Amino acid sequence: MSEDSRRLRTAAVIPAAGRGVRLGPGAPKALRALGGTPMLIHAVRAMAASRAVSLVVVVAPPDGAPEVRALLDSHTFPERTELLVVPGGDTRQQSVSLGLQALPEDVDVVLVHDAARPLVPVDTVDTVINAVRGGAPAVVPALPLADTVKEVRPDSGGGSEPVVGTPERARLRAVQTPQGFDRDTLVKAHETVTFDGEGATDDAGMVERLGAPVVVVPGHEEAFKVTRPLDLVLAEAVLARRRVTDGYA
Ligand SMILES: Nc1ccn([C@@H]2O[C@H](COP(=O)(O)OP(=O)(O)OP(=O)(O)O)[C@@H](O)[C@H]2O)c(=O)n1
Ligand SMILES: C[C@](O)(CO)[C@H](O)COP(=O)(O)O
């Protein structure tokens, strides 16, 4: 049996090491409550809801791995789901790299999913996995934009920014997670691609730099990222509706 034919497992890496500065003061964002349960627990359950996902690697705040392990141990997940916890880094990119390093050899498909997207539906997770299993090396769930987007020249000072252009909206997509990858492609991207400034804002962007194809599949409105306080209000409302209509825990 070749090495590749033994790799048949799908894992999810959940970067959860961010502070959540834009959400305001408090605990690290992934540990803040949504419907009385930490956002991270919702995100892990969202990945574990897919029958294809048998391993979830949680990337904890750098000094918080023991607390995150204890938190996971105090909640229930499907029996089929193995959970690992590793400490994260200073940037999202570093945290994802540290999560990838923890993957066992038999994993061939990797999802990378923000802890800050706790309510992604399982159908979206499965759509991404199926597209990777169907042969795409990198798959991104995304939605068309509601707003028109302007490209500006930032840092011009004085509170106003000159507009450089207006990209054609019909060609733009707002990308979400989980992003799905052939493991070797994603690892190569993390080992070889470097970004200046803010760094890569998503993993698919790193794979694009490798020159490998990246495809978009339909995302979901409820896969939005909890970034600012208003997002938390929306997340609480979605969760409350699910609890009434779907019996969601
Ligand atoms: N050093 C970091 C920074 C971010 N993340 C994770 O990357 C995801 C997306 O990042 P974002 O929403 O920007 O989270 P924060 O960095 O926590 O937010 P902020 O920029 O407002 O501080 C989150 O699940 C966050 O925990 C991470 O694992 N390690
Ligand atoms: C990966 C991501 O969620 C795709 O939209 C996004 O780029 C993360 O950005 P953040 O600034 O780290 O939240």
UniProtKB/TrEMBL annotation:
Catalytic reaction annotation: 2-C-methyl-D-erythritol 4-phosphate + CTP + H(+) = 4-CDP-2-C-methyl-D-erythritol + diphosphate
CDD domains with a match to the protein in the record: CDP-ME_synthetase
Metabolic or biological pathway, per its Swiss-Prot or TrEMBL entry: Isoprenoid biosynthesis; isopentenyl diphosphate biosynthesis via DXP pathway; isopentenyl diphosphate from 1-deoxy-D-xylulose 5-phosphate: step 2/6
Enzyme class of the recorded protein, top EC level: transferase
UniProt cross-references to Pfam families, sorted A to Z: IspD
Site (Positions MEP for the nucleophilic attack): R169, K225
Record has Nucleotidyltransferase as a keyword: yes
SUPFAM superfamilies, sorted: Nucleotide-diphospho-sugar transferases (SSF53448)
Marked site (Transition state stabilizer) residue numbers: R22, K29
Protein origin, superkingdom: Bacteria
Gene Ontology terms for molecular function: 2-C-methyl-D-erythritol 4-phosphate cytidylyltransferase activity
Documented EC number(s): 2.7.7.60
Alphabetized Gene3D superfamilies for the sequence: Spore Coat Polysaccharide Biosynthesis Protein SpsA, Chain A (3.90.550.10)
UniProt keyword Nucleotidyltransferase, yes or no: yes
Keywords: Isoprene biosynthesis, Nucleotidyltransferase, Transferase
Family annotation (InterPro entries): IspD, IspD/TarI, IspD/TarI_cytidylyltransf_bact, ISPD_synthase_CS, Nucleotide-diphossugar_trans
The protein's role, per its UniProt record: Catalyzes the formation of 4-diphosphocytidyl-2-C-methyl-D-erythritol from CTP and 2-C-methyl-D-erythritol 4-phosphate (MEP).
Annotated protein name in UniProt: 2-C-methyl-D-erythritol 4-phosphate cytidylyltransferase
Name of the gene encoding the protein in the UniProt record: ispD
